[in-house]
Design a protein that fits this description.
Layout: H1 2-6, H2 15-38, H3 40-43, E1 46-51, E2 63-65, H4 66-78, E3 85-89, H5 97-109, H6 120-151, H7 153-166, H8 175-182, H9 187-209, H10 214-222, H11 227-261, H12 270-279, H13 283-311
Antiparallel strand pairs: 1-2, 1-3
Family: Belongs to the binding-protein-dependent transport system permease family.
Pfam families: BPD_transp_1
Protein name: Binding-protein-dependent transport systems inner membrane component
Length: about 325
């Protein structure tokens, strides 16, 4: 039945239906955005002046609240003077999808308004380098520690109680301390990302390690494997596919902490670019920059998913 095929419990849909629904997951929000920003009857709470008429403080292209516009229009009509003319418009902070799409190009080609500011591609480069270094440092320490904690109860009892406590401390709370110790360049940003992802990684990796089938460990010990053999020939190879998926998820958290980190004593990066563009009221550039973060994130995730299928071909039947 068609109903059961669409709403089957924990059963995958047909490939074509999955593809259509994936398009709809992006298409529906885009459609709502288009309706709100293009259709006056939906949400156009302001008036864009096309002819200021006899109002001295009105100017062409000015955005006004509807009540003020109609009040001035009625007043001038009663006085027999030329009333202002205008069309319904969105607030300046809600650009249309077309304006944002154009900003994807113009944001890269438009020079900064101040000489000491950076181009968009430079800001993106700074943010990507901070993400890479922060997450790399965090992973190099957290992943081995998590594997040890998930394998040996000694390491679990020694580390996880403190990690459980520390992970509830918000990483941004250490921002002022990081700036005081490390300065105002890239180092405090990297430190915030390390703090924000390290403790989560330890717990996630430890939990993934514990999912190893106990029968595999028992079989290895029966065949005479020692602790090092169990760790390097059974535990680590057995958990690598799940570990790879964990890293993909945790990398998304790193991007979230980047936005927070770049708001603390920073003068570069994509968040700095967004802040500056919002200050100049170039909101189409703000939306474009925010979406660029999403595109970079999803592209990285798809690349890692593709790499996972290449490295672990026996896992192709699993859903990443």
């Amino acid at each position: 039945m068609a109903h059961s095929s669409w709403f089957s419990v924990r059963q995958p849909l047909a490939p074509r239906r999955r593809f259509v629904l994936s398009l709809m997951s992006f298409g529906i929000p885009l459609l709502i955005w288009c309706l709100v920003s293009y259709v006056p009857a939906v949400w156009h709470p302001m008036i864009k002046i096309t002819d200021p008429g006899s109002v001295s403080y009105f100017s062409d292209g000015m955005l006004l609240n509807k009540d003020l516009f109609y009040k001035e229009q009625d007043r001038l009509e009663k006085e027999g003077k030329a009333p202002p003319q205008g069309i319904p418009a969105n607030p300046v902070y809600l650009p249309t999808p077309g304006a944002v799409a154009t900003a994807f190009y113009t944001a890269f080609t438009t020079p900064p308004q101040r000489r000491d500011e950076k181009w968009l591609y430079q800001s993106l480069g700074d943010s990507i380098s901070v993400i890479f270094l922060g997450f790399l440092i965090s992973s190099l320490i957290a992943i081995p520690l998590g594997i040890l904690a998930g394998t040996f109860d000694l390491f679990s009892r020694l580390t996880e109680p403190f990690v459980e406590f520390f992970r509830y401390l918000p990483a941004p709370a250490f921002g002022a301390l990081a700036v005081a110790i490390l300065g105002i360049n890239e180092a405090p940003k990297i430190a915030i990302i390390v703090i924000g992802t390290f403790f989560q990684q330890v717990l996630v990796v430890a939990n993934t390690t514990r999912k190893i089938d106990t029968s595999l460990l028992e079989a290895a010990m029966t065949l005479g494997a020692n602790r090092l053999h169990l760790l390097f020939r059974v535990v680590i190879p057995g958990m690598l596919p799940d570990l790879f998926r964990d890293v993909r998820v945790l990398l998304g958290w790193a991007w979230t902490y980047l936005i927070v980190a770049e708001m603390i004593g920073a003068s570069s990066g994509i968040t700095w670019f967004i802040t500056q563009q919002a200050r100049y009221k170039n909101f189409e550039n703000v939306y474009a920059a925010i979406m660029m973060i999403g595109f970079i994130g999803i592209t990285t995730d798809l690349l890692l998913a593709w790499l996972s299928r290449r490295i672990f071909p026996w896992q192709r039947g699993s859903k990443a």
